Amino acid sequence: MVIMEIIGIVFGVVGVVGVIYTIYHSRRAQRKKLLVYEVSRSIALAQAFSPEDDYKLSVLFQRKGSIEEKIESVYTTFLKFANLGKEPIRGSDIAPANPLKVTVQGARILDIQVAGITREVNNVSLKNQVKEDEQAAAYVDFDFLDYRDGALIKILSVGNKGDISLEGDIIGMPEGIRDIEAIRPTSKTAGSISGLWALVIVIAGFLLSGYIFYLVIGSLRDVWLIFMPFGVLAIVVIISLIIDARPWLRGRASFPKSLDLPKWCRPLDYPASVMRTRLLAMEMQEAKTSKNEVKRKENKKGEN
């Protein structure tokens, strides 16, 4: 009975340590600032390209209070950003030496504006916009961003969208601002990292218990007895892994629904592969219809 009590104490201590460590690691991983962004596909609003030679098209652009101008085409692109960490980001956390800004390289920009925000109280705004030949920047300002707070920025450009990104430094974010695609693999696996350590601790507990058993008994004849308390320990380990795996169970890191693209452009925001598939399906359907029509006419001609 003394042996069983020793084994039970060892397993109990290991289980408690595992649970405490798992909870600590999980909470520590969540309490951080994590400002991420995502750039949508470029959507054509209007183009002055005629597929025929018998007519001409033109696109006019006019800012409020300025003269109108003719341009070749207008594309719109959306950049969304949000704080996906549990630590709030305050406006004062923006590094003065490298402020937060939306930058565009390789395209002429017509306009940059805030198209939506998660909450009005965040007070997100764009200031000191600079537009040159093929580069532009707009500085982003806000009062604070709690968990899943952010904004949707609309960018109008001539021709292709260019290279769009969110740049700057946030105090307390040494890893920098990141594209959401760069953190999604981490968010899938982060929950299993400390769970692996918990498993290592459990295995170490088994080995330690076996060693204690050998020291006390002098042999490993009845070493199977150390597995008797496993039922209770298994419950502790499962609870630990569930607590630690919550980020993994939530799946891919994602932005709040309030930052979705406007409804009018969602049908246009298809991947190129999807568009090619749809066009191919349409061509196949047209060919099939044409073939059936020819066959129907031949049958009708043969009947006559």
Task: From the structure above, extract its key features.
single chain, 304 residues, alpha+beta, Immunoglobulin-like, 3 domains, 5 helices, 14 strands, flat
How would you explain this protein's 3D organization?
With 304 residues, the protein is of the alpha+beta class. The chain folds into 3 domains: 95 residues, no CATH class; 138 residues, Sandwich (Immunoglobulin-like); 34 residues. Helix content is 39%, strand content 25%. It is built from 5 helices and 14 strands. The strands form 4 sheets. Strands 1, 2, 5, 8, 12 and 14 form a 6-stranded mixed β-sheet that branches. Strands 9-10-7-13 form a 4-stranded antiparallel β-sheet, with no helix packed on it. A hairpin with a 3-residue loop joins β9 and β10. The termini are far apart. About 7% of the residues have low confidence.
Q: Count of helical segments?
A: 5
CATH architecture of the largest domain: Sandwich
CATH topology of the largest domain: Immunoglobulin-like
Radius of gyration computed on alpha carbons = 31 Å
Average of per-residue pLDDT values? 75
- Termini separation (Å)? 103 Å
Largest sheet: 6 strands, mixed
The number of distinct β-strands equals: 14
Question: What is the strand and helix layout of this fold?
Answer:
Elements (H helix, E strand, L loop, with lengths): L1 H29 L4 E5 L3 E5 L11 E3 L7 E3 L1 E11 L5 E2 L10 E5 L2 E10 L7 E7 L3 E7 L2 E2 L4 E9 L4 E5 L10 E2 H38 L12 H15 L1 H4 L22 H32 L1
Parallel strand pairs: 1-14
Antiparallel strand pairs: 1-5, 2-5, 3-4, 5-12, 6-11, 7-10, 7-13, 8-12, 9-10
Helix pairs in contact: 1-2, 1-3, 2-3
